[in-house]
Design a protein that fits this description.
With 106 residues, the chain is mainly alpha-helical. It is built from five helices and four strands, in the order H-E-H-E-E-H-H-H-E. It has one domain: 434 Repressor (Amino-terminal Domain) (Orthogonal Bundle). Strand 2 and strand 3 form a beta hairpin.
Length: 106
């Protein structure tokens, strides 16, 4: 094994160890995990209902849009078409769903 490969392997091991330590404090690490978790939470939200202003309301893209201040079209495309949305909107969704995340080099 050459020196460059040894350095790369060592770096990969450090990254894996860092991710494991971060998992103690965060629900997800990285943009891909965050997107996956948010899509899962949106799916659960759409299957649920909640009491809002003394009215039972079923989860919908419009209701989620109202609660997060994100366009329902952006949410729908992100959820069903798996199109990317900006980190600002992902942050709004993460805050709404209570997802703690760590993203580096996005």
């Amino acid at each position: 094994m050459g020196p460059a490969l040894a350095i790369e392997v060592s770096r990969q091991v450090e990254i894996m160890e860092l991710k494991e330590r971060l998992r103690q404090f965060y629900d997800v690490i990285g943009v891909q995990e965050l997107e996956s978790e948010l899509r899962s939470r949106i799916t659960d939200y759409l299957a649920s209902s909640s009491l809002i202003n003394e009215r039972r309301r079923k989860g919908s893209y419009n209701l989620l849009s109202e609660q997060t201040d994100i366009s329902h079209t952006f949410i729908w495309k992100f959820h069903t078409k798996e199109q990317a949305i900006c980190i600002t909107n992902m942050n709004k969704l993460a805050n709404f769903f209570g997802v703690k995340y760590f993203v580096d080099n996005f």
